[in-house]
């Protein structure tokens, strides 16, 4: 299946997909990840001896038009160096719609962030590449819509090469999209304008949402945990504390942001601006990369020599469990420590 990358990115074609016997043409090496709607498989194409990742979307749970849209955006955006490469290979099996992508040997960012965070230099690498990737997406009139650590794949242990992936939620800027149910582990990434929307209702998809999610992702890279459970001051006292500081009603830096340098605080204040129309665009991140972000904090210890990395699947399971534990902590106990 071939497509012209120079074609209009908003003209989503829906050609018929060739029916393929997956077991005949591919050797499935292992399952890299599995969700409600899709499996991600590491496979070797027998005739070409090429190793690829196959994203297999379950036929019963997805519309063909949604599959075509994700494949289309994944393929047309992949020339950017910080976006995962998608190949001109798409087909269907008896149970799935499938397209092929490159393999990230070190898994996703969630499986690489340890307690205490990555440290300043690796976090800056992540910030530089993700802001560039999102700026490219936005320049095409699109919104990624689902930036989280699981959707950033790692190709170098020092984070000097990471790539944005998963364009299943990508839409044209300004499109109306429904608010869907979200697992507790991903709630911290939702911007306040989405948190305020009732599940099932529609809201306008804007690039400012990606900017917010980038700010949350950077905080998690630097600390190892999210700053709050959700961006709702009524439900989350930690976010309420942040709003008071953000609105200059207190000079006390919220506890999750203690230890940050003044320039990093300014950057996060701009990315995590509650008013979406006032939120800084992702290109602003480049202005802060030369500043000291974590003054006086030593870099995190590296893995001991000879220690083997966990598998991609094990990394994701461990990261999800840690996040769920962190987000299940008693908010009242946290707020009492902060004096709110």
UniProtKB/TrEMBL annotation:
<keyword id="KW-0723">Serine/threonine-protein kinase</keyword>
<keyword id="KW-0547">Nucleotide-binding</keyword>
<keyword id="KW-0418">Kinase</keyword>
<feature type="domain" description="Protein kinase">
    <location>
        <begin position="26"/>
        <end position="294"/>
    </location>
</feature>
<dbReference type="Pfam" id="PF00069">
    <property type="entry name" value="Pkinase"/>
</dbReference>
<dbReference type="InterPro" id="IPR011009">
    <property type="entry name" value="Kinase-like_dom_sf"/>
</dbReference>
<dbReference type="InterPro" id="IPR008271">
    <property type="entry name" value="Ser/Thr_kinase_AS"/>
</dbReference>
<keyword id="KW-0067">ATP-binding</keyword>
<comment type="similarity">
    <text>Belongs to the protein kinase superfamily.</text>
</comment>
<protein>
    <recommendedName>
        <fullName>Protein kinase domain-containing protein</fullName>
    </recommendedName>
</protein>
<keyword id="KW-0808">Transferase</keyword>
<dbReference type="InterPro" id="IPR000719">
    <property type="entry name" value="Prot_kinase_dom"/>
</dbReference>
<dbReference type="InterPro" id="IPR017441">
    <property type="entry name" value="Protein_kinase_ATP_BS"/>
</dbReference>
<feature type="binding site">
    <location>
        <position position="55"/>
    </location>
    <ligand>
        <name>ATP</name>
    </ligand>
</feature>
């Amino acid at each position: 299946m071939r497509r012209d990358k120079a074609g209009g990115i908003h003209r989503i074609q829906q050609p018929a997909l060739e029916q393929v016997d997956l077991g005949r043409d591919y050797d499935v090496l292992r399952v890299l990840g599995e969700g409600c709607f899709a499996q991600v498989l590491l496979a070797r194409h027998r005739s070409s001896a090429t190793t690829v990742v196959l994203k297999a979307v379950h036929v019963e749970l997805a519309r063909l038009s949604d599959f075509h849209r994700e494949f289309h955006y994944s393929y047309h955006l992949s020339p950017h160096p910080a976006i995962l490469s998608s190949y001109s290979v798409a087909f269907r099996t008896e149970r799935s719609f499938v397209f092929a992508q490159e393999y990230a040997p070190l898994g996703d960012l969630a499986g690489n962030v340890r307690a205490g965070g990555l440290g300043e230099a690796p976090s800056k690498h992540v910030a530089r590449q993700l802001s560039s990737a999102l700026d490219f997406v936005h320049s095409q009139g699109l919104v990624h819509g689902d930036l989280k650590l699981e959707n950033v794949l790692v190709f170098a242990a020092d984070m000097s090469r990471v790539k944005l992936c998963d364009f299943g939620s990508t839409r044209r800027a300004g499109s109306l999209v429904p608010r869907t149910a979200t697992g507790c582990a991903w709630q911290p990434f939702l911007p306040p304008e989405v948190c305020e929307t009732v599940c099932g209702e529609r809201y306008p998809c804007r690039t400012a949402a990606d900017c917010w999610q980038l700010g949350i992702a950077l905080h998690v890279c630097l600390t190892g945990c999210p700053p709050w459970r959700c961006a709702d001051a009524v439900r989350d006292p930690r976010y309420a504390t942040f709003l008071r500081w953000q609105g200059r009603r207190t000079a006390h830096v919220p506890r999750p942001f203690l230890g940050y340098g003044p320039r990093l605080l300014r950057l996060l204040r701009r990315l995590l601006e509650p008013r979406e129309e006032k939120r800084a665009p992702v290109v602003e991140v480049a202005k802060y990369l030369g500043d000291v972000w974590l003054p006086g904090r030593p870099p995190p210890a590296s893995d001991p020599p000879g220690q083997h990395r966990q598998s991609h699947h094990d990394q994701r399971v461990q990261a999800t469990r840690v996040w769920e534990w962190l987000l299940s902590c008693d908010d009242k106990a946290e707020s009492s420590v902060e004096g709110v």
